């Protein structure tokens, strides 16, 4: 099969054999046709709409020690912060005024935010703005905690699986963290009724094409509503400081592959993609991405939420990013819409 036929097969059946995926992921020859077909599929379902999510990075305390992450427990060079409930609610209100109808509460795994505190924040945001969707991204918890967040009004949950391969997982994380538990969390979240987001870093240390194919298979089984991918970017104060960054081209290629495999999924053009290439998010849109998550955190603390070096937008006001994103989307033919941007379902 030539590359055009491979892309056609992927588009028409939403699947390939492992060998075919490997061929497609390891060449740049199909890229032009692949992204073109991904964009067509995205337009047929989501038109030219881009959904905006307001990201509030509410704590950079983390009890975990992932080797790649800048806010890992052992990084003594980070000034740690927590936003109190009132500050978080103010950010959400400001976001609402700017047109956001999804708020993402993201943080390190910080035991200070007990289920009770988190549920109170969720309930209060929902009380003030019943038409807002709340997405949580606060890591691995037990089933009952997830259930409590859901009952309090949370709608969606982001938890990248990072890699579906247990051995690869153990090269990215200390032994107290396992791929198995992470995957269990995702299935728990699904069964509770959350729209879930899985995902990986592209070009994380020791990653092979075979690992990525395993990730695709895992996601075929999980059927996440959202898939977050971005290039791995090294951080100077982590054990992976000297590791090479992930590839921009491969990230774009995977966005397109994911759009063809999961036509209905919500696929963000991530901040990491905009960091590795100044026009990365625009290329992401053109390859099938339909979500963007500008930062809504107070400007003073943005520089303290550095998962990787050189993160963009850490000096900007939220309103500035909203305008910037609007212009960037329009420059490549898409438009940012004010809506909850729920995942569409197949008829
Ligand atoms: N480079 C790119 N992405 C990273 N993440 C964490 N650290 C890095 C890094 N150094 C991603 C992880 C995590 C998400 C919140 O950010 O995939 O799940
Ligand atoms: Fe923040 Fe462009 S998105 S400045």
How would you characterize this protein structure?
This protein is of the alpha/beta class. Helix content is about 45%, strand content about 10%. The strands form 2 sheets. A 6-stranded parallel beta sheet has the order 2-3-4-5-6-7. It has a 3-stranded parallel beta sheet with strand order 8-1-9, covered by helices on one side. α4 runs parallel beside α5. The structure holds 5'-deoxyadenosine and FE2/S2 (inorganic) cluster (FES). 5'-deoxyadenosine binds near residues 68, 69, 232, 233 and 272.
What ligand molecules are bound, each kind once? Answer: 5'-deoxyadenosine, FE2/S2 (inorganic) cluster
In total, the number of strands is 9
| Helix amount | 40-55%
Shape: globular
From N to C, what is the helix and strand string?
HHHEEHEHEHEHHEHEHHHEHHE
Ranges where pLDDT stays below 50 over 5 or more residues in a row are none
Distance between the termini: 31 Å
The secondary structure category is alpha/beta
What is the residue-averaged pLDDT?
98
Could you give a short account of the major beta sheet?
6 strands, parallel
Number of helices: 14
Largest sheet: spatial strand order: 2-3-4-5-6-7
Assess the beta-strand content as a share of residues. Answer: 5-15%
What is the radius of gyration? 19 Å
